[in-house]
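Schema walkthrough. Field components (list of strings):
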Amino acid sequence: MLDSLQRLGQAGLDRFQRLGQSVLFLITVVARMMAIVRYPSLLIQELYSVGVLSLALISISGLTVGMVLALQMYTTLVNFGAEQMLGPVVALSLVRELGPVLTALLFSGRAGSALTAEIGLMKTTDQLSVMEMMAVDPIRRVVVPRFLAGIISMPLLATIFSAAGIMGSYLVGVGMLGVDDGAFWSLMRDKVSLSEDVLNGLYKSILFGVAAVWIAVYEGYQAVPTTEGVSRATTRTVVHSAFAVLGLDFVLTAIMFGDY
Amino acid sequence: MFDEKEVRQSDEMIVRINNLHYRRGSRNILDGININIPKGKVTTIMGPSGCGKTTLLRLIGGQLRPEQGSVSVLGKTVHTLNLQDLYELRKRMGMLFQSGGLFTHLSVYENVAFPVREHTDLPEALIHALVLMKLQAVGLRGARYLMPAELSGGMARRVALARAIALDPMIMMYDEPFTGQDPITVGVIMQLIRLLNDSLGMTSIIVSHDVYEVCAISDQLYMLGGGKVMGEGSPDELQHSPIDEVKQFMNALPDGPVPFHYPAKPYDEDLLQGSGRC
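Field assembly_structure (string):
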């Protein structure tokens, strides 16, 4: 009994220690962010591998989510004779919630895990130690470009996800189910506010981006330099990012949209 | 940060290690060792696997902090330096890692050019000439377009060596340079270490357990064991050392004061205990 309590206490302390270490790591990364001025080409490379290479996944996912949303919403709205509201309902769901959240979850699975594995393997194969011994700071050279690329990519990808979703719902709602074309767009324009909905969704996606990419680079940098260590770190990135994004989403939604 | 006068004042001893202690978990890796590494010589730290040789190199390079004692390089106590000063010091050091540590996304040419691009503003033509000179020194000028994945183990280590000497360091550290290499590559690396040391006026520190090879190229040897310095001197002195541990190591005897078996309970007791738990 005492042993179990002791183990529980130790596990709790370990978690807090990791949390503290990750915050210190974030502070170090932010403090050295200006180093990107020296490495603009690295940022472009990382934007390509983190952002551009995620485009196919994000746009196809957005399109299918929009199509499914249109089908689901239509069957309910049509019962109340409110099928014209399909456009705004889908658009609000996407820009406020589904766009930022699903993009962040997909992003951590596609790009976050790749960042962790890449940095973890660089550590395992001594490439980070080699840089240190060459008087090249791996935080500035390796972590900062990836961190910034993640933060820049996330809101752009979330916007593309929402746009693709709206197009998907248009194809199904207007093309297949016969919702009026004009009503679909004009009601969407009336009901979706730029400052309330679109920008808040964008802020969410920026914060999700910071959380997901912070977890990804931290896990990679702190990975135990073995095959198993990198594998565990990659898994942790996806799991922790999912928890962080979903938890953060609740808090941000309560702050942004909870007019109680 | 460093001027030549300061370096001269470091009393011809480039690295001074005083009463160095280092612990990993509950295990004492280094337990009060003293080592002096003279300028311009090839000094080898020998010892069985796991005796803390690589740890010692990482302490000299400032990648680890000692529990107690100090490591002083070019007159500077390494663990007291701030990050900027430590990086200044490291610009004068080169290290060849056991794994090579080549950047897998860069070609051989770009790997060697990496430290030059990072620390100088030389024009591309000069970088080109410099990289080719370093690759020529290790015999791999013709392999400059290859990627690290296309290199054999020996070639990768030679590329890593060319990269480590790209900025003409004052101190060159080699971590197990001969391990896992074929005899021809071992011969090439032995020749390169001695040649680079003498022609570029470097100081070389080798960490190795390959007795024959290090005796052939070293000026001075230290033997570590049990976290302490078991013996020191020239290769000839160590080969004729009366100390049992040194004798066992130098003559590759399977058992002796350095036990073959990892500490365990008696063999018969272990066998009779059954297979309930491993």
